[in-house]
Amino acid sequence: MKGLSLTLIFGISSSVINVNNYAKELSLEVSFSSEDAINKVIDLEVSGVRRQYQLYTPEGLSSPKALVFDFHGSGSNPQQQLAISNSQQIANHLQAVLVAPKAVRPFARGGFTWNTPYHKNFADDVIMSQTIIEQIRLRFKLSELPVVVTGFSGGARMASLLACKLPDKITAVALVAGMRQPELDGESCPDTGATHILSIHSIKDTINPYRFYDGAATSSYWNYGVEESLKAWAGRYQCETTPNHIELNDTVDVFSYQQCLNNKRIISYRLAEGGHTWPGSSFEFPDYLGSVNKSIDASKIISKFFVESLSDK
After folding, report:
1. What pLDDT score was predicted for residue 62?
2. What was the pLDDT predicted at 14?
3. Within a domain: residue 17?
4. Predicted pLDDT at 212
5. What does pTM read for this prediction?
């Protein structure tokens, strides 16, 4: 991803939480001052690995209604992801806390990526996510806090994994340019719940193919396309085989699966224009990732989807 030149919105100081494993984190009592409330970098240790996330709390919010995760793409970072997604506005709209974690698994093209499909030699990002959820609940003294997740590219792979692994904890996921169905990667998903799923993806994405047989340059990395993911999620949720179809505009079709398990929704925005980018974003993507579809605003669509999903609880 292209380097980012902007003033960081987060303070440079950190609060450090040290835990050796998830069980210790669950029982940890955390004390925060009111000065920690907005725009912080938080360090923590999970299973012996030092992790970090950006924390954004809308000004004046003392009792959040939800927790939003925003996962960056492979080789990117939290600051760049927030510039791409503008997810602070999603948090403002939901009156939610926003968390943008940082990956630690080395990425072949530089930087870091998420440990999915899971490999035992790298940190477990599902456990990290569970730890952050419990830490945020402790921070705001809430017994429960609904969780919604978004991500771009490799970050959407991570969000897909959480929809699989934590269906009883994750209310909804919104996946931009990176939808997966982890069972196709050999993962197992528990039958303890189900998660609302939104996908936004261009058929001209040459990095993560919408249709695997389109022959994207990175096909050996992605292994299957968005269409296969949608069909696998719809099958898992026992949805009707054929989704409803609406032509939103000249470049966007919307598919919605009906009669799914527990009334969960699977919605797919299929874009005829745009590349491996975030629709509506003002971020300057490198040319090789393709154009940005400006006919829709993915962040606004995601915000609306999360509001509706949270109201279903």
Report:
1. 87
2. 31
3. no
4. 75
5. 0.87
CA distance 209 to 11: 37
Which structural domain, as residue segments, surrounds residue 31? 22-311
Residue 11, domain member (yes or no): no
Q: What is the pLDDT of residue 59?
A: 87
Distance in angstroms (rounded) separating the CA atoms of residues 37 and 52: 17
User: What pLDDT is stored for residue 26 in this prediction?
Assistant: 31
4 within domain boundaries: no
**For position 296, which CATH number holds?**
3.40.50.1820
Count: domains in the chain: 1
Listed as ranges, residues in the chain with pLDDT below 70 are 1-38, 213-221, 313
Q: Is residue 44 domain-resident?
A: yes
